[in-house]
Specification:
The protein is an alpha/beta fold and 356 residues long. The chain is built from seven helices and 18 strands. The model is unreliable at 245-259 (pLDDT under 50). The structure holds flavin-adenine dinucleotide. Flavin-adenine dinucleotide binds at residues 39, 53-56, 68-71, 73-80, 99, 120, 123, 242-243, 300, 304-305.
């Protein structure tokens, strides 16, 4: 749940100017077993304020390593600190691996995975790619990787090495938005038109069994629509968002009708304890829990990660944004508590049922 565990930084690799790869040694290895595509949420105080930031694991499931890649964001607090001040031997604190950016495995002996990554979006894709190439001998993998220019490409050498090792199974298509290339297709942005050209000439879209997308929302939407236009089903497309263009922190709009009191009777279950309190109607379930000293798990507070996932046991809530839960999870009553606001006068929700 909301537990944080200590990890020591055992190596810091800087292969491009604005990104680092951190190798981490957990004090308790058992807490950090992970599935390819999952992320860690770190916490650290900056000027007396605790920040929580998530970073995807870039190592493969069977590599015996715990590594994350952190790209420096201009003006970004955590990523700048990690790129400039963090040292080998320092201790960090992180929650156990979380996230659903993976598929349980193909029923197919010869799956063809297609992945679209942009910038630091390569990190979970690299984990998925490494795991598939190692664990599924019949798997083909096609990676479309877009960056501004060649010298900002994270994991360029690792990808080259993997390509050399798996010549006939791995295809990598680099698209550079800032550098002019000999072939137009490899320049510019990844949008619907680019996908159309790629699927016409370079990617055998008919053989693709599962697609993964990790990058900005605009690219994710364009690629996902194009994949569907080219015959993929919704359940064959998985995506991970690192940030959202949506107003994830917006308060619940005043238009919601139904119940009339301003206060809500709340009941929260966490780590086997049930707490009851009264909460204001215009704050999220997560903020209400935190304000009442329930140490609920959270990270992005923008509906992007699923750290604050909870199950609504009674009452009704409205979720303003959801970039993390699958349809079946929402149908089963799960919500992102940072984005959920009470619609009824009584609401109870359970963090234990979310299953980590
Ligand atoms: C599930 C998930 C997985 C992720 N995986 C990765 C990964 O593998 N690798 C990776 O590099 N990133 C990853 N991210 C993104 C990462 O969590 C951070 O969001 C990112 O590193 C930026 O954090 P920061 O603290 O450096 O920036 P922040 O301090 O949050 O700043 C972000 C931006 O906002 C601007 N800003 C900040 N404060 C203000 C202000 N007061 N006024 C105006 N502008 C402001 C900054 O200039 C910056 O441009 C992931 C995110 C999620 C949700």
């Amino acid at each position: 749940m909301a537990d944080f565990f200590d990890l020591t930084v055992t190596d810091i690799e800087k292969t491009v100017r604005d990104a680092v790869v951190l190798t981490l040694k957990p004090k308790d290895d058992n807490a950090f077993a992970f599935v390819q595509g999952q992320y860690l949420t770190f916490r650290r105080e900056f000027d007396g304020e605790e920040l929580r930031r998530s970073y995807s694991i870039c190592a493969g499931k069977n590599d015996g390593l715990l590594q994350v890649g952190v790209k420096q964001v201009n003006g970004g607090v955590f990523s700048t600190w990690a790129n400039s001040e963090l040292k080998v031997g320092d201790d960090l604190q992180a929650m156990a691996p979380a996230g659903n950016f993976y598929s349980a495995g193909e029923m197919n002996d010869a799956p063809h995975y297609l992945a679209f990554a942009a910038g630091s979006g390569i990190t979970p894709i690299l984990s998925i790619l490494r795991t598939a190439l190692m664990a599924e001998p019949g798997a083909q993998f096609t990676l479309v990787y877009s960056n501004r220019n060649l010298n900002t490409v994270m994991f360029r050498e690792e990808l080259e090495d993997l390509k050399n090792l798996h010549m006939n199974r791995l295809t990598i298509i680099h698209i550079l938005s800032g550098d002019v290339q000999d072939i137009d297709l490899f320049s510019g942005r990844v949008d619907a038109e680019k996908c159309k050209q790629l699927f016409a000439h370079w990617v055998d879209i008919g053989s693709v069994t599962m697609a993964y997308i990790c990058g900005p929302e605009e690219m994710m939407l364009a690629v996902s629509a194009s994949l569907k236009d080219h015959g993929l089903q919704k359940n064959q497309i998985r995506f991970e968002l690192f940030g959202s263009a949506q107003p994830g922190r917006a308060k619940r709009p005043a238009t919601i009708t139904g119940s009339q009191t301003q206060e809500v009777a709340a009941k929260v279950v966490l780590a086997g304890d049930t707490r009851s309190f009264t909460m204001a109607r215009d704050i999220s379930l997560l903020d209400a829990a935190l304000q009442n000293d329930v140490q609920a798990p959270f990270a992005c507070k923008a509906g992007v990660c699923s750290t604050c996932k909870a199950k609504v046991l009674s009452g009704e809530v409205e979720m303003l944004a959801n970039h993390a839960l699958e349809d079946y999870e929402v149908e089963a009553g799960f919500v992102l508590s940072c984005q959920s606001y009470a619609l009824t006068d009584n609401v109870s929700w359970d963090y234990d049922e979310a299953g980590g």
